[in-house]
Design brief:
This protein is α/β, with parallel strands linked by helices and 324 residues long. The chain has one domain: TIM Barrel (Alpha-Beta Barrel), CATH 3.20.20. The chain is 29% helix and 17% strand. It contains 10 helices and 12 strands. It has helices spanning 36-39, 54-68, 86-95, 114-120, 134-141, 147-159, 178-188, 214-222, 293-304, 319-322, and strands at residues 14-18, 72-76, 101-105, 124-128, 162-169, 191-196, 227-229, 239-243, 248-252, 265-268, 273-275, 284-285. A 12-stranded mixed beta sheet has the order 7-8-9-6-5-4-3-2-1-10-11-12. Helix 2 packs parallel to helix 3. The protein is globular. Bound molecules: S-adenosylmethionine and iron/sulfur cluster (SF4). S-adenosylmethionine binds at residues 23, 29-30, 76-77, 79, 104-106, 128, 166, 168, 195, 197-198, 200, 203, 319-320, 324. Its EC number is 4.1.99.22. It is an enzyme of class 4 (lyase).
C-alpha cells in the first residue's frame, strides 16, 4: 500500500459521506432560510437523484479504501435516513470489508429505521438533539413538534444501537439546556457531546455572537456536578469528562481546544467531490482516477495537504453539503 501521510503523520482513516444535501429540518446553524419545500420530505422523495448513484459511491469508496485501508465510514448528510438507497449502500460497503459503519442523524425517521440499521450491521449512531424543551428545540430546528426525535432515540436505545447525542450550544438559544441534556443522556445511559458553534455556510462571515465556548459549558455543568477529565483518544474530535453522578459528556471545541493535529478524516459529498479538510472548500472529483493507483494516491496526498496545522478557520460550505 502506498503511504499517504503528511509531515504531521496524519493519514486518511475515516471517511464521512454526505449522502444527500437535502434535509427535512432547517437547523439555524446549518440552513440560512427555512426550506419549506424540504420540511415535509419523506424517504424516497429525497432528491437522491441529485446525488451520485450507489454504484458510483461504492466505486469511490472501494478505490480510496484500497489505497488508505479505511477503518470506518460514517454516513451523514443532509439527513441520511432520507436517502432511499441507504441499505443497498451499507451492504456494498460491508462487501468491501469495511465493517465499522456509523451514521449521524436528526432521528426524525429513526423509529422506523432503528431495527433495520441493527440488522444492516451499523455499529453506532450519533443523534443531534439541541434541547430537551420542545419550544427551545423547535426554534433551533425550525419545526413545531420535536417528539419524534425523542421517540427515535428511545427506540434506537432499545434496539441496541450504540448512541451518542450531539448538541450545538448557542448563547441565548439553548445554553439553558446544557444540564437538562446531560441529565437526559445520563438517565438513558448514553454519552452526550456539546459542540462549539462553527462558522460554516451562512455563518462564515457572521460575527458569531451565538458562540458559547468550552469553558462556559464546563462551568455551567460544574454548577451542578463535580467533573473529572478523561484521557483523550487518538484523533478524537471530543474531550470527555465524567460527572459525579456517573454521566459522561464530551465537548467538540473546534475553537477552544482544536484537534487538527491528528485529524484522520476524509469527506465525500453527494456530488462525488472529496474534501481533505472541513476548513477548505476545495473539492476534488476522484472518479477519473479510480483505476490509476498512482494518480489517485497523488490526488489524495494533495487533499491531505489541505488539512489545517492547528485549527479550523471556517468555511463557506454548510455542514449539510460537506457532511458533518
Ligand atoms: N442531519 C444529520 C444531523 O443533524 O445529525 C446529519 C448531518 S448534520 C450536518 C451533522 C452534524 O453537524 C450535526 O450534529 C449538526 O448539529 C452539526 N452541525 C451542522 N452545522 C453546524 C455548525 N455550524 N456548527 C457546529 N455543528 C454543526
Ligand atoms: Fe438537517 Fe442535520 Fe443540517 Fe439540521 S444539522 S438542517 S438536521 S443536516
Amino acid at each position: 500500500m502506498l503511504k499517504i501521510e503528511d509531515k504531521l503523520g496524519r493519514r486518511f482513516e475515516k471517511l464521512r459521506i454526505s449522502l444527500l444535501n437535502s434535509c427535512n429540518f432547517s437547523c439555524i446553524y446549518c440552513v440560512d432560510n427555512e426550506f419549506d419545500e424540504n420540511a415535509n420530505l419523506q424517504p424516497d422523495q429525497n432528491g437522491a437523484d441529485k446525488s451520485i448513484s450507489v454504484e458510483e459511491f461504492t466505486q469511490l469508496i472501494q478505490a480510496v479504501h484500497r489505497l488508505t485501508g479505511l477503518k470506518s465510514v460514517r454516513l451523514t448528510g443532509g439527513e441520511p435516513l432520507l436517502y432511499s438507497n441507504l441499505y443497498p449502500l451499507i451492504e456494498n460497503i460491508k462487501k468491501l470489508g469495511i465493517n465499522d459503519i456509523r451514521l449521524t442523524t436528526n432521528a426524525f425517521f429513526l423509529k422506523e429505521n432503528a431495527e433495520k440499521l441493527v440488522n444492516a450491521g451499523v455499529n453506532s449512531i450519533n443523534i443531534s438533539v439541541d434541547a430537551i424543551d420542545n419550544k427551545t428545540f423547535g426554534k433551533i430546528i425550525r419545526r413545531s413538534d420535536t417528539s419524534r426525535v425523542f421517540q427515535g432515540i428511545e427506540v434506537a436505545a432499545k434496539a441496541g444501537l450504540n448512541i451518542k447525542l450531539n448538541a450545538v450550544i448557542m448563547r441565548g438559544k439553548n445554553d439553558s439546556q446544557i444540564v437538562p441534556l446531560l441529565d437526559y443522556a445520563t438517565e438513558l445511559g448514553v454519552k452526550i457531546r456539546y459542540l462549539e458553534l462553527m462558522k460554516m455556510g451562512h455563518l462564515y462571515h457572521s460575527e458569531n455572537g451565538l458562540f458559547f465556548p468550552e469553558k462556559e459549558i464546563l462551568s455551567t455543568i460544574q454548577e451542578k456536578y463535580e467533573i473529572e477529565e478523561m484521557k483523550r483518544e487518538h484523533a478524537s474530535t471530543a474531550h470527555y469528562w465524567r460527572t459525579s453522578n456517573g454521566g459522561v459528556f464530551g465537548i467538540i471545541a473546534n475553537e477552544s481546544t482544536p484537534f487538527c493535529h491528528d485529524c484522520n478524516r476524509l469527506r465525500l459529498d453527494s456530488n462525488g467531490y472529496f474534501f481533505g479538510c472541513l476548513s477548505n472548500a476545495h473539492g476534488e472529483k476522484l472518479m477519473p482516477y479510480i483505476d490509476n493507483e498512482q494518480l489517485l494516491a497523488e490526488k489524495l496526498k494533495g487533499l491531505l495537504l489541505l488539512k489545517q496545522a492547528v485549527k479550523f478557520h471556517g468555511s463557506e460550505l454548510s455542514m449539510r453539503n460537506i457532511g458533518g
